[in-house]
Specification:
This protein has 126 residues and is an alpha+beta fold. The chain has a domain at 2-74 and 108-121: hypothetical protein PF0899 fold. The chain has helices spanning 2-24, 48-59; strands spanning 30-41, 68-74, 76-80, 86-89, 104-106, 112-121. A three-stranded mixed β-sheet has the order 2-1-6, covered by helices on one side. Helix 1 crosses helix 2. The mean pLDDT is 91. Bound molecules: zinc ion (ZN). Zinc ion is lined by residues 80, 82-83, 85, 96, 98-99, 101.
Length: 126
Amino acid sequence: MHEATLAQSLLGMALKAVREHNAARPHAPAIRIREIRCELGLLACVEAQALSACFELLAEGTEAEGARLVLRTAPLDCSCRDCGYRFALTRRHFACSACGGENIHFTGGHGLTLLALEVASEENHD
Ligand SMILES: [Zn+2]
């Protein structure tokens, strides 16, 4: 399942970020992740609910257990092969916003990017 693979890699990225955070701040290590903000490519075709559910399962017993997943869609940089106009798509509507042409060039749009983590350290109860 596509979402499970993405959730697994997202968890991997988050836990790696926590280890790096803790290595840099041994005096105030993060003990748990509160929130994970990430960006999904416009073409990733991911069901946010399914991704969150998979993530929740995989995160059990790790520092990311109970973390809130905040997903947003990354705009896709495109250029028009007909008129050369460059623009960013924010929805799956593949037409040039300048000339209306459908001869659109783009790369990527499938990835999942980790933007930020909000962590809680031992001294930082809220
Ligand atoms: Zn165009």
